[in-house]
Amino acid sequence: MGAVRRAARVGMGEYRAYVESGDAARLDAAIDQFRRALVGRAGKTPQFSHVNNLANALVDRFELRWKAEQAEREGELRVLQRHDTRAMNDFNARYAPHAQDLEEALICARWAVWARPGDSPDAARGLATLRRVQRQREASGVLLQRGPTLESVNLCLAVMPSAPLADRVAALCHISKGRTGFRTAFEAIVKTLPRTLAWIGPAGNRRQPARETTDALNKLIGLALYDNNPTLAMELFEASRGVLWDRVVGHSARAVVRAKAATVAWRMDRAADCLNEHGGAAGLRHMAEPRRRDRQERRSDRQLKMRRVQHQRIWDAMSSRAHVILRAEAKRHDTGKPEATFLVPNYARDIRPAAAEGPVICVWRWDHRIVALLVKEGHDAPKVLDLGDASWLDKGMEEYLLAIDDVSSETREQTVRKTLEQLYPMFRKLPWFLFGSDFDPADVPRRVWWCPSGLLATLPLHALASFSQKDAYNSGRHTPVTEVRDPRARGGWVPGAIRRATFSCLLDVMTSSYTPTVRSLVWARETRDAKAATTGADESRAPSMLLVTAGEESRLESLPGTAGVRKQIQKLVPPNRLTLLSGKKASVRRVLPALARHEAVHFDCHSFRDPHNPWRSGLVLHDRPLTVEDLVDRSVDRLDFAYLAACATALTDEQLPDEMITLAATLHYTGCPTVIGTLTPSADRSTARVTRNVYSGLISADGRVDPEECVRLLHAAVSAERTRLPDHPTAWSPFIHIGI
């Protein structure tokens, strides 16, 4: 038996080397070792890990050789693709090399699925392997012995709670084409999302990285739209917004429950570890780690099933108690943030109230289309609008994100103009959908909130504009926005009585704010109302403002324009209501406690972004940067207003495209209802002008800051800057308002 285990481990080592290097010789060596491990167990039941690993390695070798064969006959293949599908299939079957690899892999995969009990991690891994074999079989056109159909394998995998979320969703995508069993599988996946998203153990975290989880959730949103269920799509969209925040920053429901009810958290940990038990090779999802004798193979199928049923009951009971704890904690602190990734939100209870003071526009990309989910007061379901084709977005956004960091470059200005102008025709008709067919562009700009996702979160959607003399709509080249009632239908509903627009920028007709999640608007308003109710009881406490400036001692370039802003603030706010932390005093150990004692804060300093570790992005202070990680566990409930006069404090990164993990969003999450930040690096003079215009109306004669006027003043200041420099969007498009 020692030789068997040794061969299996050597095989895993060779396979890892193949994955890292792509060397086919290492793959051949891994297959030889896996076969040697099976031969060593002659006369005995094969071990699951040996059989499953051999099947995966054989599929890899077949795929490698088949692609090489396709490349050699590329010219003949191109001709066949143009003429005849049947001839193409015959070509695949005739030239597919080493079909015996796929034949042997099918035998191994079928045994692996049969050998393990249903709803177990090994069964899920075996099904995933069998799915790989059947998909490769269909793609190559190789004729093998009869086996389970790909549709039946996908259905079994989609409804199996033990399978990784990404595998289940991928299987569901294929089921959706035939519709058979689609609704059952969809409901099964949604039912297990609370455990999958928020309460997976350490092994599960390795198995399902944050990026992979959000990708799977994005596919689920598209499938919900495909199923003509916009309400569920909106609920899943909102759930996906909190996943990266929970995983990357660690601000999770699990930590809150552990602090408040350690026994409940401990029992949930045990149940989740059992239900999400992995046991596979680290970094190789479908491969199984060879062991002396796997625990689940030593245990009878009946015992394993009973154990899983028992832990499922424990999970159900404890999760109900955890939900009560989180609700009580949210009510006590006027914030529901810890619950964000524990349960899929309810549209009527958690999402629709966010539109009480204006519609919310959730922007998302689905299958090369830009889609808007509109949340409006009084509507039982969100509207789904297909805004247009976005096949150019990836390349265009790559150019945009590279250009915005070069502040002085003319290429930057041209790229920003080009990007805003490309998107403007798609979003131009939104006001009529939001405010009705009687909307008049000459009216006072109306209030809206944006909740963008993915790469769209890096764009100033509020500032989309046409910079040409003759815009796309008037020249007849604009395709109207359509409301998607049935996503499979090509046609759509267009609002009647659309009059010719007289505006060239969304700033002309909409006063925009942003929100990291839709529910954060509800939390912020509840906090605001609670503060307003207690204002009369605490009149003795005078409002105060914190001004933080690192100055030249931060060892970075000084910003002369912002020096005038500092003087303006010191002139407008009485000395007894202003706390100034500058130079050596502008340190993290002084700033963090001060945030909890003031109603408003203005940061006048440089910032930086860490694209690989977004929680380490921060503001440059005297001793060290003030990072997202420093702020996330702090409560700033007393803070009503924050102005981050630094570059790109509200810009997410392309590495994390499905959540706004930024300094501005962090302050909003931790209790500050109103935050002003910037989406891109901005010129010093433009920043100073916009900031001075905001503060000239924001601070009253007695030094009070009125957050309610913040968004109106920012909109007016940005509009004034646009009037000054209409063809230079980098001077006025970066400034955004986050919150209420």
Low-pLDDT runs of 5+ residues are 201-208, 470-480, 482-501
Radius of gyration: 29 Å
- The strand line-up of the biggest sheet is 5-3-2-1-4-6
* Mean pLDDT value: 78
Please, could you describe this protein's structure?
The chain has 740 residues and is an alpha/beta fold. Helices cover 51% and strands 10% of the residues. It is built from 29 helices and 15 strands. A six-stranded mixed beta sheet has the order 5-3-2-1-4-6. A hairpin with a 7-residue loop joins β2 and β3. It is globular. The chain starts with a helix and ends with a strand.
Secondary-structure map:
Layout: H1 2-21, H2 24-39, H3 48-72, H4 74-83, H5 85-95, H6 99-115, H7 121-140, H8 150-158, H9 165-178, H10 182-191, H11 193-198, H12 202-207, H13 210-226, H14 230-249, H15 253-260, H16 262-275, H17 295-298, H18 301-333, H19 347-351, E1 360-366, E2 369-375, E3 383-389, H20 393-403, H21 410-427, H22 430-435, E4 446-452, E5 482-483, E6 510-514, H23 518-534, E7 545-549, H24 560-572, E8 578-582, H25 588-595, E9 600-604, E10 607-608, E11 618-620, E12 625-627, H26 628-632, E13 641-645, H27 663-669, E14 674-678, H28 684-698, H29 710-724, E15 735-739
Parallel strand pairs: 1-4, 4-6, 7-8, 7-9, 9-13, 13-14
Antiparallel strand pairs: 1-2, 2-3, 3-5, 10-11, 11-12, 14-15
Nutshell version of this structure?
The chain has 740 residues and is an alpha/beta fold. Helices cover 51% and strands 10% of the residues. The chain is built from 29 helices and 15 strands.
